[in-house]
Structures are given as C-alpha cells and as structure tokens.
Amino acid sequence: MMSFTLHFLGTGSATSMALGSASAVLERDASPLLLLDCGPSTPDRYKAAYDDLPPAIFLTHAHLDHIGGLEAFFYQATFKPTQIKLYAPVSLVPMLHARLAEFPGLAEGGRNFWDAFQLVPVSNAFFHAGLIFSVFPVRHHAPNTAFGLALAGQFVYSGDTRPVPEVFAHFGAGNETLFHDCALNGNPSHSGIADLEREYSNALRQRMYLYHQADQSEANKIAERGWRVLAPGARIALGG
Fold first, then answer.
1. H or E segment at 237?
2. Which runs of E-coded beta strand occur in 93-237?
3. What is the pTM of this model?
4. How far, in Å, are 43, 81, 107, 113, 114 from residue 71 at the CA level?
5. pLDDT by residue (tens digit) across 70-91?
6. What is the per-residue burial (b if ≥16 Cβ within 10 Å, else e) of 145-159?
7. pLDDT over 60 (residue 106)
8. How many whole angstroms separate alpha carbon 222 and alpha carbon 192?
9. Bridge partners of 131?
C-alpha cells in the first residue's frame, strides 16, 4: 500500500524570512511527487531536502511569495538540462507569463522561460503520476486568482484564502488531512484564527493543520489556542 506525506519546506507569509515561503512537497513512499507553490526561499530548501529538481509543481496563485522561486528553477533546469512539469490553473497563465516570462529568458543559448517547464493548464482536475487531483477556487484577493488542491482520501490544501468551509466540507468529506492558511488576525485576503473558529465545524478543525504565519511568535500564539501549527521541515502523514 502506498503511503503519502506532505513535507513543508516553508510555512511563512510573504514577510517571513525565518519561516520561509509557504510551500510543501507531496511525497509518495518517501519520494517527492509534487511541489505545491514555489516562493523565493523554496529552491534552496528543496535542494537541501532532495538534492534535485522537483519533477512537478502546482501553483495556487501568482503572488510572488508563491511563484518567485520559479526563476531559480528556470536556470537550474536549463543548465541540467531537464524540463519541470508545471500545473497552473487556466486563469493564472496570463498572470504567470506577464510576471515571469515576457522578458527573454537566457542570453546564453537563446532559451525562453517556458523552455524549462512543461506548462499544463488545468481547471477542476488533472492527472499526475497515476493520481487525479482536484482543483478548487478559494477566496484570496480577487475572484478566480487563487486555488486550492485536494487528493481524495489524502489531503486538502487551501493555498492562501479567507474561510471556505463549504469547500473543505466537500473535498474533506472523507479522512483527508486538512491544511489551511491562517494568521493570528484575518484580513480581506487571509484567514485569521477567529475566522476558522467561527466558520469551520469542530469535526473539520480537528483534522486541520495551519501555516502562513508572519513569524514564530505569531505561530506560538495560535498554537496556545489549541491549534496544530506547522513548522518548516514538518512531515505530516496523510489520510488520517
């Protein structure tokens, strides 16, 4: 029987250098399968953990603290040479191109940015490595600009979001392990701890792990309220 874990390379918000860019690696039988998001600190942390390039990446949204590391992977993949599979919700593709790929990529050899990646636009679901993943919109900044990811029986990952209890109740209807964006105080783009306590059922909260804090002090204050708060390097066994 296959075993799955989610390995958090970083758990911080955009301002957190110590906690690192929020990103995680889905591992199957201890081997990296899919990287979730790729902020500025992600490539170094990924190399330290696996000493290789990721086989595939899923992007939740196009804010730079979640995509800023792709340029480093572009250079590494170009000189390897290899190609990284990059799954991106369809509505993000124009934003990704504008932020990362409009300027010519590499002077040596005339490489374009997308030459280093196999871009796979996705909508509500996609296949990867013999598995089918579900993609769902979340509430972050503006409609259709941020998305979460789920693997039935294993996990639901919110990405950056305000509370979406109906979505988690649907994709987390089994024994999935739940991962949610949460700071101490909420704002129009992110959940705060009071939001989760108000919006989510006790049954869902009991399966939930939290990430995306500004610093360790904030993470500690959330943990003091009885929540499970992730730290960089944490590996969580999935599926109950």
1. strand 235-237
2. 117-122, 125-128, 131-137, 147-151, 155-157, 177-181, 208-211, 228-229, 235-237
3. 0.96
4. 9, 15, 14, 8, 11
5. 999 999 998 888 899 999 999 9
6. bbbbbbbbebbbbbb
7. no
8. 9
9. 128
